[in-house]
Amino acid sequence: MVDFLLHFYRKGSKPFQSLSALPDEKANEIMRDLFIEGSVLWERFRDPLKYLSFRREVEKKLQDDFLRKGGRPREDYPIYLVLGRPRWTQQSADARTTATTNEIRVPLSILSSEDVSFTYPDSMVSAIITAEKNPDYYEADYHGKVFTLEEIRRIVEQRGLPGEGWQTKMPKHFANYIEAQVWNRPVLLSYYDQIGKT
Hints:
The strands form two sheets. A five-stranded antiparallel sheet has the order 3-1-2-7-4. Strands 5-6 form a two-stranded parallel sheet. The chain has seven helices and seven strands; from the N terminus they run βααβααββααβββα. Helix content is 38%, strand content 16%. The protein has one domain. By secondary structure, it is an alpha+beta fold.
């Protein structure tokens, strides 16, 4: 099993932040600053109001589903990370993204099963795929579902990471990775302080 998560954040900013936790005006201002046309990570902020509304809708369902599975979220909104270093992140990297993005590697061992949930793929993409149910790539056993740490470990042990053993038919424009949602921000901030990132 992969034993780490990756958190990507904009150079010059602080990691482990949630746009959803901010007032709309502040969140929209930040998203306008984050937007970079042609960047695989930052182009998603092209339409800040639409993005934030959909994101909060997805996050409410994530939280509800995680609670039903025994999660104990300490936050209303999660911090997003990626399980391992999936092939998609390397294949999709573009110059605009790599020039403007930092990453932090977080040991999975600092989190309990009550702190973290998982989706395949990115939770917003998973919600879109579930709504569309395109038979060419929709997987009912995985899309639109929230997984616990124990469940995702079993899946990865059986199938590998998406694109590495776990072969999928996902279109290239969809992020093909397992997303982690951490619902305990203090533990991430404590780890960040320990490693002395600047």
